[in-house]
Every structure is written in C-alpha cells, then in structure tokens.
Amino acid sequence: MSVTDFWTPFELNSFLNALFIGLSIASIWLIAAVGLTIIYGTMGVINMAHGELIMLGAYTTYVLQTFFYIPFLLCLPLVFVIVSIFGLFIERTIIRRLYNRPLDTLLATWGLSLILIQGVRVIFGTAPKYVSIPGWLNFQVSLGFLHLPGFRLFIILATAALIFGTWYIAYRTTWGIRVRAVMADPDMASSFGIDSNRIYSITFAYGAGLAGVAGALFGGLKTLLPDMGSGYIVEAFLVVVVGGTQLLGSIFSSIILGELASIFSYFTNDTFARFVLFTLIVIFLRFRPQGLITEGMKRR
Amino acid sequence: MLRLDDVTSYYGKTPILHGINIDLKKGECLCVIGRNGVGKTTLMQTVMGLTTRIDGKISIDGEEMTRRSTAERAIAGLGYVPQGRRIFGKFTVRENILLGTFARQGIKAQIPEICLELFPYLRDNLDKKAGFLSGGQLQQLAIARALATDPKILLLDEPTEGIQPNIVEEIYHTLVRLNKNIGITLVLTEQHIKIAKSLSDKFIIMDTGRLVHSGTSEELTDDVVNTYLSI
User: Fold this and answer.
1) Would you list which residues of chain A are within 8 Å, Cβ to Cβ, of chain B?
2) Which residues fall within 8 angstroms of residue A164, CB to CB, at 6 or more apart?
3) Structural domains in chain A plus CATH codes
4) Taking CA atoms, what residue in B is nearest to A184?
5) Which residues of chain A make contact with B127, given a CB cutoff of 8 A?
6) How far apart are CA B229 and CA A202, in angstroms?
7) CA-CA-CA-CA torsion for B139, B142, B148, B154, nearest 10 degrees?
C-alpha cells in the first residue's frame, strides 16, 4: 500500500464537507453525552447504563410508531416523558441507595445495562428494528459543494434546541438555581429548604429523558439492536471527560472531538482516525485531567 | 422557642458534642463562647441537622425536629449563617439571596425588602457575581440570604470573623436590630467577648464538646472569661 492510498490529498470542497460531517458527529456525540453530563455533574453518578437509556429511547420510538402509529415528531416528547419516568424509577430504587459509593454505583448501573439489553432482547428479539423518519426530513440541501442530509440537519437543530432548553432551565429559572446550588454545596442548599434527594431524582429523570430523545433521533440514523447503546456510550464518556463534566465543556469537547474525528477520517480512514483521536485524548488528559472546563461553582 | 435536651452529636461514629441542654425563649439572643475547636460550630450544625447522628431531643416552638432533615428545619424557621459564609461565588448576589427564599413554602421567589434595606450595597449590586465581593460584603450577603428564609431563629457562626472593624460594627447594629426590633431569636458563636456581652441575653461556654458554664450576659464577668477562656 502506498502513502497516497492511505493519505487523501487536501481538496477544499471535500474538506468543507468533512467539516459539516464533523459538526453532525459532534451533535450526535453531544446529544448522547448531555444527559450523562447533567447526571454526573449534579450527582457524581457515573451511569454505565446511559447507553441503554439511549437504546430504550430508540425502542420506545419504534413501539410508539409501530403499535400506536404516532408520528415521529410527537414521539420525541413522549419518549422523553417515558424514559424520564423509567429514569426516576431507577434513581428511586437503585441509585439513591448508592450515593457516595461510586464503585458500587458503577457496578450496579453496569449490571442494570446488562439487564436492559437482555430484557429488550427477550421482548423484541435480536432482529434489527427500524424507526421511520418523516418523508419531509428525507431531503438534501445542496449548497454548491456542500451536501447536507436533511435528517442530519434536523439532529443538529434538535441538539441545539435541547442544549438551549437545558441551559435556560439551569440559568434562567429558580429550579436551575436549586440544581446548581445542590451541585455546588448540597449541605448549604438544604439549609435553604432545598430537598437534595428530590433534586437528584428529578435531575436523573431529566438526564434519562434526554438520553431517550437521543435514542429516538439515533433510531432514524441506524438500525435498532439491543446492544446499540454500547456504540454511543464510549463517545459520550469521552465528551464528558474531555469537557470536564460541565455543560459548556461538553459542548466544546463534542465540537472539537467531532471535527477532529471527521478531519482525521477525511485525510486517512475511520479506524486510523479513531486511533489518533483516542491517543490525543489520552495525551490531553495526561496534562489536564480535570477536562476543558472545571466545576463551575466555587465555594467561598 | 429553641430547646435542646441532652443532645449528643456525632460525626460518623465519634461523639463530638456531649449532653447539651439549651432553652431559649422567643426574641432572646444566646451567645456560644469557647476556644477554637471546642464544638461551637458542631453545635450550630447539630441544630441545623448537618451532623451524622443526634441523640437527645431538639425542638422549635415545641415541635420536635430531631429526626427532621436540614431542609425541613429551614422550612420550620431555622436560618443559618455558617462559618466561612459558604457563599456561592459563581452565583449573582440576586441568586444567592433567592436561594434563601426557597425555604418559604408556597410563596413566589422574590427577594424580601428587608434584605436590601439592611444592606443597601447588595441592592446596588444584585447582578454582580458574589465571588467578587469583599469579606465584609460576603458576610452581609450571607446574613441577607439567611434572612430571606424568613427565620424565627437565626444561627450565626462567627459572624464577625475576618472582617474589617467598620463592617463588624455595621453587622453588630444589624444583629441588634434583627433581635431587639424585629424579634428574631439569635444564636451566635462569637470570639469577641465585648460583642457577645453587649448583644446577647444569655451565654454558654463550651469546652471539649461539653457545656461547662452558662448564665446571663451580666454574669459574663472577667473572672468567668479568665477561668474558662484563657489559654
């Protein structure tokens, strides 16, 4: 194999297309990671079952579409509610008993992920399932050299909307003040009448709901399989770790990682791009283990 | 108003306070005195429900609080100004005060006028990040935040610690007003004996987690100070 077989020479139009694909990858990684970021940032819980919450979102969409004939757009809020309720149930029954025991939480949520995979396998079988996206999203925007698939654009916009909504709740509502106070200093927050356990429950449910919506959107991109969650969880964790467990950090890290992945793929191939990306992340974390943006609240 | 009956408090399995008894009437001011590390802050945290375990009984207005959570105690009327203030530095002044209002059940989150009337500086800097305030301003914010909870009883842990003298005087006058004019019951730990004596109705002296002496402020004489507080 010659170098030219491995290395794609630079060509402006293709490179700009790769940048758009990078943005698309970033939006997918970000939407997969945002729930994880919120749950880890608020509660310090590393939820190993996050990928399976994404999978549940995808399968819930499939069920709503196939058996209840609910249109895709209406599925999104319904999936959010359904997976949130499931998240609330998990928090109340499992996570709550394991606060301040990170290793136990890790193990318990990993066990939960296996149960969910097997449960879905038992109910739906191993054959792939599909989420159908509305016809009006099956378009392609061609801007000269740029070719933007409609559904990818939709995911970018949906991600932006979810991030904006999450930011608005966190920084523009009294509920957000409560959550940020619990994140920064739970003892002091409770001395103002804030029930930390309630905040944790609702935050976990919200994070789970976001994972569900991510699953619904991913269902439009790929086939549904019981173990599909594991395909997203690695990237989601990378985004959270590189970002520093803050929402803003996750936004930056997903854009940087998505673009790097796409650019390396453009010049080489997907496999080598992953190798370079993971190597760069290891080097980055060696020098900045706290991630891009550190904990936003400082105790005085 | 506030009653502690034979309260023993633990961090983990280790008892830190031993058999504390306090009976405070509405509108009174109690000063907790003692050298560093004798358990004054633990007493405050115990009343607030921030220690691991409590034996004995704590009640507010006759209502037992011993097994209640910190949040429930705040809602029941306990306001808390902790040592070191523990202000949320990345929050704005407005957000810090709004936090206090969450203890008022069923009322729209709105900054009570008294918080800004007592500390005009805060009114002019509501949108400033609290992390940029000076030590004295932070203490004012901590008191305003606790007042926003609409407390019946205000616990103040070293409210004048590390603050420049003119602000200490301002805080002293504020506490007098809160106690004597508005009628809020105060419990404070204080290193300055002069302030303790002029502000409080009663005092207790603590040593190694035990209450070793108590009396009215008139009884806080130099002899008592020399006996219990000299190093």
Assistant:
1) 174, 177-178, 180-181, 184-185, 187-196, 296-300
2) none
3) 3-134+142-287 (1.10.3470)
4) B88
5) none
6) 49
7) -90
Q: How far is A150 from A138, CA to CA, in rounded Å?
A: 6
**Count of structural domains within chain B:** 1
CA B183 to chain centre: 15
Residue B152, chain A, CB below 8 Å: the answer is no
Residues of A in contact with B100 (CB under 8 A): 192
Among candidates A177, A193, A297 on the partner chain, residue whose Cβ is nearest the Cβ of B75: A193
Does the pLDDT of residue B231 top 70, yes or no? no
Note the maximum CA span of chain B: 51
Chain B contacts of A298, Cβ < 8 Å? 89-90, 131
For the domain that residue B209 is a member of, what is the CATH number? 3.40.50.300
Contact B131 A181 (CB under 8 A): no
Task: Look up residue B158 and give its DSSP letter.
Answer: S
Of A177, A187, A298, the CB nearest to B99: A177
**For residue range B118-146, what is the model confidence (pLDDT) as tens digits?**
999 999 999 999 999 988 899 999 999 99
Strands B29-33 and B185-189: parallel
Predicted ipTM of the assembly = 0.88
Percentage of chain A surpassing pLDDT 70?
96
Q: Tell whether the model's pLDDT for residue A297 goes beyond 50.
A: no
Would you state the pLDDT for residue B138? 93
Instruction: Please give the full DSSP string across chain A, using - where no structure is assigned.
Output: --HHHHSPPP-HHHHHHHHHHHHHHHHHHHHHHHHHHHHHHHH----TTHHHHHHHHHHHHHHHHHHH---HHHHHHHHHHHHHHHHHHHHHHTGGGGTT-HHHHHHHHHHHHHHHHHHHHHHH-SS-B--PPPGGG--EEEETTEEEEHHHHHHHHHHHHHHHHHHHHHHHSHHHHHHHHHHH-HHHHHTTT--HHHHHHHHHHHHHHHHHHHHHHHHTTS-B-TTTTHHHHHHHHHHHHHHTSSHHHHHHHHHHHHHHHHHHHHHS-HHHHHHHHHHHHHHHHHH-TT-SS--S--B-
Residues of chain B contacting A196 with CB distance shorter than 8 Å: 71
Handedness of CA B15, B21, B27, B32 (dihedral sign): negative
> How far apart, in Å, are the Cα atoms of A262 and each of A15, A148, A154, A194, B2?
9, 15, 19, 44, 65
CA A277 to chain centroid:
18
